[in-house]
Amino acid sequence: MKTISKEELTDLYEKDFFLWLEINMELLREQAYHLVDWENLLEEIEGMARSELRTCISQLARILEYMYKWDHLRGYTRAGQERGGLSWIRNIEEARAEIRAEFRLSLSLKKKLPDYLEMSWQKAVDRISIWLRDVGKGELVKEIPQKCPYTYEEAMNRDLRKEVNP
To answer: Buried b vs exposed e over 134-163: b needs ≥16 C-beta within 10 Å?
Structure first.
């Protein structure tokens, strides 16, 4: 590998990320730790971890949004209370599948995600509020609880298919 200075490598981070990555990987393989662009490398690793967690938080928010809408807002769908919101069940199941897929890649996320229930709920409240305004029921936004009305276990395990009216 061609010798590169630390300054050149740091500069490469902004100009050619892929090449910067390849060079840093090679430096690590060669155990040339003193040449590695540690500052940017650590920032990238941290960003990867945050990205996986953000994905799980977003999917948990999706679950909470549709659970709340199922429990409280089905009557405002076109199909009405009896048949409304059936697509929401599928959305919940898909979000759970996405979370489980992330857990298979990063088992530690399974332990962390419950700590982000309230953060996920706040995202869900924003989404529910937008939906309520879209269906002409913006006055109901004030009735959405500020604290999450569901447990993490309920969000991950409640089977809404059992609650569908035949």
So the answer is: eeeeeeeeeebeeebebebeebbebebeee
Residue 105: name the closest of 52, 54, 60, 156 by CA. Answer: 52
CA distance 57 to 4: 40
What whole-number percentage of the chain has pLDDT above 70?
94
Q: How many CB atoms lie within 10 A of CB 130?
A: 12
CA-only gyration radius of the chain, Å: 23
Threshold 0.70, pTM exceeds: yes
Taking residues 70-80, what's their average pLDDT? 84
Nearest to 152 by CA among 129, 130, 125, 119: 119
Q: What confidence category does residue 164 fall into, taking pLDDT thresholds of 50, 70 and 90?
A: confident
Residue in the block written with tokens 């799980």? 56
Residue given tokens 């009216």 in the structure block: 165
For residue 78, the model assigns a pLDDT of 74
Q: Which amino acid is at 119?
A: M
